[in-house]
């Protein structure tokens, strides 16, 4: 059986690898439209109020197992927690399967980690056949590229992210944002307001939109990230570059059939955490 996976970001790569391990022949359809996130946090506890990602207990060890095959993981995330929020954090973490340890002014998450995302994606892609081109149409067993070329397979999986959401015929919300690259290096990740990990400070989020629009980092975003970084670190890091993108979120509806094919995505900022789990589920459904 042969599959076409449209999209070569972290979701598409996880799908391609899961299908290949299940015995499928896989070809990626890669638009080559951007470099992608530089540093990815794989952290099951989100936001100022310490919300725990559903399915984190299953998703986090699987993500570590998958990504750890390709590069070393930088384990452990330190989360300072304001005194007035600690009781709420304690209740949420106590009710979850997430490993954690409380210290004086916050919580240590020993199984959370960060990765050099560009290196990870490059290594995951090694040996995967791909067709360079932008998909402009798709059905259950074929994909049409810009320029008119048509690709065919036994199954098509649409994993083209925010930019492909409209063509996939799905909704959700779109959050533009940026990640700041800096001269300093943070081997142990810290997060509150923004995170500091590797050579990156992340990230800014602009108000949600109902449709995708390309994002260019604004001066105000950089100023905001630097101010939050100073609060977190005690000093202002030195910017060296920036990544800008759009996160697509579908509020829990991450895997479903459409037009005879399959759509996977809409994870928002939890893509690196949840993609391995949902890619495995997709491979099981297609191979069952």
Q: How would you describe this protein?
A:
The chain has 288 residues and is α/β, with parallel strands linked by helices. It has helices spanning 10-21, 56-67, 86-94, 117-125, 161-168, 219-233, 271-287; strands at 2-6, 25-30, 39-42, 45-46, 51-52, 74-80, 101-103, 106-116, 130-132, 135-138, 142-145, 150-152, 155-158, 173-192, 194-205, 239-249, 255-258, 261-264. The strands form four sheets. Strands 3, 6, 7, 8, 14, 15 and 16 form a seven-stranded mixed beta sheet that branches. A hairpin with a 2-residue loop joins strand 17 (255-258) and strand 18 (261-264). The longest helix is centred in the C-terminal third of the chain and has 17 residues, at 271-287. The protein is globular, with a radius of gyration of 19 Å. The two termini are 13 Å apart.
Keywords summarizing the entry:
single chain, 288 residues, alpha/beta, 7-stranded mixed beta sheet, 6-stranded mixed beta sheet, 7 helices, 18 strands, globular
Set down the secondary structure blueprint:
Layout: E1 2-6, H1 10-21, E2 25-30, E3 39-42, E4 45-46, E5 51-52, H2 56-67, E6 74-80, H3 86-94, E7 101-103, E8 106-116, H4 117-125, E9 130-132, E10 135-138, E11 142-145, E12 150-152, E13 155-158, H5 161-168, E14 173-192, E15 194-205, H6 219-233, E16 239-249, E17 255-258, E18 261-264, H7 271-287
Parallel strand pairs: 1-2, 1-13, 2-9, 6-14, 13-18
Antiparallel strand pairs: 3-8, 4-5, 6-8, 7-8, 10-11, 11-12, 14-15, 14-16, 17-18
Helix pairs in contact: 1-7, 2-7
Low-confidence stretches: none
- Structural class call reads alpha/beta
Relative strand content: 35-45%
C-alpha geometry: globular
Count up the helices.
7
Order of helices and strands: EHEEEEHEHEEHEEEEEHEEHEEEH
- Taking Cα atoms only, what radius of gyration do you get, to the nearest Å? 19 Å
N/C terminus separation:
13 Å
Q: Can you give the mean pLDDT?
A: 93
Number of strands: 18
Biggest pleated sheet? 7 strands, mixed
- Helical content stands at 25-40%
């Amino acid at each position: 059986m042969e599959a076409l996976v449209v999209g070569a970001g972290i979701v598409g790569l996880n799908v391609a690898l899961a299908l290949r391990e299940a015995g499928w022949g896989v070809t990626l359809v890669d638009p080559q439209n951007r470099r992608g996130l530089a540093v990815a946090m794989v952290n099951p506890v989100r936001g100022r109020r310490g919300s725990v990602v559903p399915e984190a207990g299953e998703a986090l060890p699987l993500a570590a197992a998958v990504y750890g095959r390709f590069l070393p993981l930088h384990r452990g995330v330190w989360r300072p927690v304001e005194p007035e929020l600690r009781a709420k954090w304690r209740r949420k973490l106590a009710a979850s399967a997430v490993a954690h340890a409380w210290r004086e002014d916050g919580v240590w998450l020993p199984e959370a980690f960060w990765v050099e995302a560009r290196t990870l994606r490059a290594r995951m892609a090694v040996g995967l056949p791909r067709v360079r081109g932008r998909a402009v149409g798709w059905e259950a067993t074929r994909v049409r590229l810009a320029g008119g070329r048509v690709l065919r397979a036994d199954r098509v999986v649409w994993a083209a992210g925010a930019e492909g959401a409209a063509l996939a015929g799905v909704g959700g919300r779109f959050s533009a944002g940026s990640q700041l690259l800096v001269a300093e290096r943070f081997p142990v990740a810290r997060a509150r307001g923004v995170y500091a990990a590797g050579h990156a400070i992340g990230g800014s989020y602009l108000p949600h939109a109902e449709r995708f629009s390309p994002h260019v980092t604004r001066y105000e975003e950089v100023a905001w990230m630097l101010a939050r970084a100073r609060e977190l670190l005690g000093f202002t890091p030195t910017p060296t570059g920036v990544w800008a993108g759009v996160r697509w979120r579908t509020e829990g509806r991450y895997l479903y059939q459409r037009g005879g094919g399959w759509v996977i995505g809409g994870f928002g900022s939890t893509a690196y955490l949840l993609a391995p789990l949902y890619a495995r589920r997709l491979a099981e459904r297609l191979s069952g």
